[in-house]
Amino acid sequence: NAHEVPESVAALANYARRSKEEGRIVLICLSRSTLRNLVTDALDWLPSEAVRNHSIQKLGEQEIQEIIETQLPRESSELKKRIFRVTGDSAFLTIFVCELVRRKVDFSSAVSEEQFRRKLCDAPIEEATSICGIATFNAIRATAVLSAAAPIDYRSDAVRDVTCRLADISPTEYDCLVKQLVESSLFSTYAISLLKPTPDLIGALMIDR
After folding, report:
1. Distance from the Cα of residue 17 to its chain's centroid
2. Is residue 7 predicted with pLDDT exceeding 60?
3. 20 to 30 A Cα–Cα from 92, which one of 99, 118, 135, 202?
4. Are 155 and 142 in contact (CB under 8 A)?
5. Strand 194-197 vs strand 187-190: parallel, antiparallel, or unpaired?
């Protein structure tokens, strides 16, 4: 959520700019598109060619492959192809998987895209909301609605009504779901009653599901 810490973005960009070519540091900032100007303003002192902007909703196959190449320049082409097959067109999932690989987490070739996305998205939601007695499918639909409109006032009657209708859950189940999502840190609240996924861009994966 780079838009929340523009001062840190500027400081990290300065550190990356001074890195030597043989150990060059690339700074990747993720933000909501509506607040991206806060990030670009923090980087406006850099040469224009040093900053690249992407909309994660519009990345194509080549751009996803460029992300993988930038994140994992020393890994084998086979591993990069495997990551691309699993993450598809999701920029968030691509960056997330690349970070796992950088941390030396084993990325088995036997794991399918569906299994991987289920493990990253479905399982945490199911675990967090199981106490509410809501089917996983309905819980994912509810989180997708909340993610798509985030940041959103979860106490609003209109938000509750729309989420309940689209996810086919009751108002009582909605209140329980929101409570469990926050307690599990899948979502966070701020400014009293505004709700958003944590981090923001994991909401894209919830919407994909």
Report:
1. 26
2. yes
3. 135
4. no
5. antiparallel
Angle made by CA atoms 15, 1, 174, in degrees to the nearest 5: 165
Is the CB of residue 187 less than 8 Å from the CB of residue 195? Answer: yes
Say if residues 85 and 61 touch (Cβ distance below 8 Å): no
107 pLDDT exceeds 70? no
Q: Where are the beta strands (DSSP E) in 22-128?
A: none
Task: Return all residues near 53 (Cβ < 8 A) that are at least 6 apart.
Answer: 36, 40
CB 131 within 8 A of CB 196: no
Which tens digit of pLDDT belongs to each residue from 20-58? 766 778 888 888 777 888 999 999 998 888 888 877 666
Neighbours of 116 (CB within 10 A): 17
- Computed on alpha carbons and rounded to an integer, the radius of gyration of the chain in Å comes to 19
Q: How far is CA 144 from CA 6, 140, 149, in A?
A: 27, 6, 9
